[in-house]
Design a protein that fits this description.
Length: 250
């Protein structure tokens, strides 16, 4: 693969599995140094050991700050800047979903989804942007979803959070453009990860039948878009929400 991220330093939140792990791998193969963020020490170190086995020459590290805690996140980013010299790319990928109908929804679950999918993205972006502003630029790629276009029929907290991701992406691209910081989002369709594995087959099959390209996405399909938007090939793209969903319209 062409090393289009040579010399860049990237952080990928939720980098331990699924789409995040595929982004970590893609960025490393493209020549970046990557710090993957996990929710817990154990899973972060397990993913680190796996990626080091798959790509023995890669420069990769792992951290597990609480993504909603500005102090912890800022300290982690400053640590990375000190160790590697810069922070050029932030992939805000960590996220959870839930499919519960409205009348069964627990208030604390609504808070949990908004905390991770929205507040953590704001906290991480703010901490990274402070460093990127000082160093003269950077690229931030957020994880939206295809449900951010028309919502979904059950589990309202998740689409609400992804509409908010689009709002943050568009607003922050305008606010941070003057600092040469690009902010974009990728909106994946149904993708083969643990998040989807928990859904019943009778829910997934009709969704797949509705995809013009006839299959769900693989994590690598989504990681390709994260690579493009992080690279200088996207040098004048900011504020975009890029659907990666096999032409599906929902
Ligand atoms: P996944 O469940 O496989 O991975 C989620 C990642 O988020 C994991 O690395 C996990 O460690 C991390 N995470 C979960 N809770 C966390 C917490 N409290 N603090 C820090 N990290 C935490 O899911 P995935 O499918 O790879 O999802 C990745 C992103 O893609 C999410 O933002 C999700 O909303 C989005 N997305 C997924 C699909 C899909 O069909 N899989 C579709 C559209 C968007």
């Amino acid at each position: 693969m062409e090393r289009i991220l040579n010399g860049k330093v990237a952080v990928v939140t939720g980098g331990t599995r699924g789409i995040g792990y595929a982004i970590v791998k893609k960025y490393l193969e493209a020549g970046a140094k990557v710090v993957l963020f996990g929710s817990r020490e154990e899973t972060a170190l397990k993913a680190l050991s796996k990626i080091r086995t798959e790509l023995p020459d890669a420069q990769v590290d792992a951290m597990w700050p609480n993504l909603c805690d500005r102090g912890e996140v800022s300290a982690a980013f400053l640590n990375i800047k000190e160790k590697y010299g810069s922070l050029d790319i932030l992939a805000n990928n960590a996220g959870i979903s839930q499919n519960t109908p409205l009348f069964d929804y627990k208030d604390e679950d609504f808070d949990k989804i908004l905390d991770l999918n929205v507040k953590a993205l704001y906290v991480c972006t703010r901490a990274a942007a402070e460093i990127m502003k000082e160093q003269g630029g950077g690229a931030i790629i957020n994880t939206s979803s295809i449900v951010s276009y028309n919502g979904q029929g059950s589990g309202c907290g998740y689409p609400a959070s992804k509409f908010a991701v689009n709002g943050l992406t568009k607003s922050l691209s305008r606010e941070l453009g003057r600092y040469n910081i690009r902010v974009n989002a990728v909106a994946p369709g149904v993708t083969r990860t643990d998040m989807v594995a928990v859904l019943p087959d009778e829910m997934i099959q009709p969704i797949i039948r509705n995809i013009p390209m006839g299959r769900m996405a693989e994590p690598e399909d989504i990681a390709n878009a994260f690579l493009f938007l992080a690279s200088d090939w996207a040098s004048y793209i900011s504020g975009a929400i890029l659907p990666v969903a096999g032409a599906v319209v929902i």
